[in-house]
Write a structure and sequence with these properties.
Maltoporin, Chain A, two-stranded antiparallel sheet, mainly beta, 2 domains, 22 strands, 1 helix
Amino acid sequence: MLDMDLGVQRNYREEWSQYVNHGYMPPNFPDNQTFPADLERGFEKYIYSVNLKATHSQGERRDLSLGLNSEYQDNRIDGRGFIIPAFTQAVLGGYIFAKQNISASSIVNLGIRYDFGQIKTQPYSDWFQSPNDDETEWLYVQRATRLDRSFSALSWSVGYNFNREIFLLKANIGKSFRMPIAKELAANGVNYHQFSYEVGDVNLSPEVSYQLDMGAELNTNRFAISVNPFVNYFANYIYLNPTHLHDRLYGNGNQIFIYTEAEVFRFGGEMHAHLYLAKKLKLGIIGEYIYSEQLSGSKKGFSLPFSPAPSGLISLKYQSLNLGFVQNAYLYADLRITAIQNQIVPPEEVTDGYQELNLGLGGEVRRVRISLQINNVFNSKHFNHSSYYRLINVPEPGRNVAVNITVPFNIDITN
């Protein structure tokens, strides 16, 4: 079986805001620029892709796939603001994937892949002048330099699946590769969406990691439980490193983050279980935990920024009720419990734990589905450590009441 996909995309984005001068920007926008005064940023991207795949199947016991993926991007910028330069990016990858059924319930799979990528960035200088350090000369500050870098690596994966009626077991071990993207290499501006000033590093190496993930699931008519642990080792993990510095020239005092790489060890997992306490009463429990530690670099011994705190969800749902003219009625209560997050990266702040209660009910009336949801019933004020709103001390939403009404309809278009 031979498959080929050809793709062409054009993405166009503009961000508009009234002209306000920051730093050494002129009080009045000059009329000799090539972009409008109120165009904060413009992005235009052309993507051309070709994907080829050949699959050979030998009955139900063995499958073999070979593939080739390629993509070329042409990214252009516009406007008075700057965060990343114009750049082009080309990637090419080839892979072989094999799956072997060794028994009626056991499957082994193996994959190997080679990737090559090249990225070229264009230089960029401010459209206005700023003084040098001793204020003896005014210059157009260069925010990005010309860059031409190539990356390549071999990655692989080996997996095993065992599936027999009510029991499922799976395991996978492998090596992965990711080349740094344009903003990690060449960013130098305000990220208004994340309330930060981001600075790239042109010397970043590709991100390489080794991972082991497993999963086990037991599923019966009365209850089900699944556990999914994982372990990661990153030879060099790329992340936004928070600093104590703040930008005063291009934005509104945003904290400066610098893209950094470090050796990182990480492990964690998820657990899910549910139990029918009665025929229509279901109890569910979900738990999540992740631990990260930097093994090198300036933040050695610390976690990673914006690491989620351990959390759990306890849910109780009464369902499949028929109450007169209300069919398939249900009601539920969810209690989310999140622990304190004190595994931080300076100058991050510790985020307190919290509890949040959500309630809901619903049903169908003459095929019209109606539901009522009340989130954060007690209107508790709390913060999400993994949210960028934490940087500016904006709490999560308070009490929120939502009513949903879904009216189905059918249109007969047959003759």
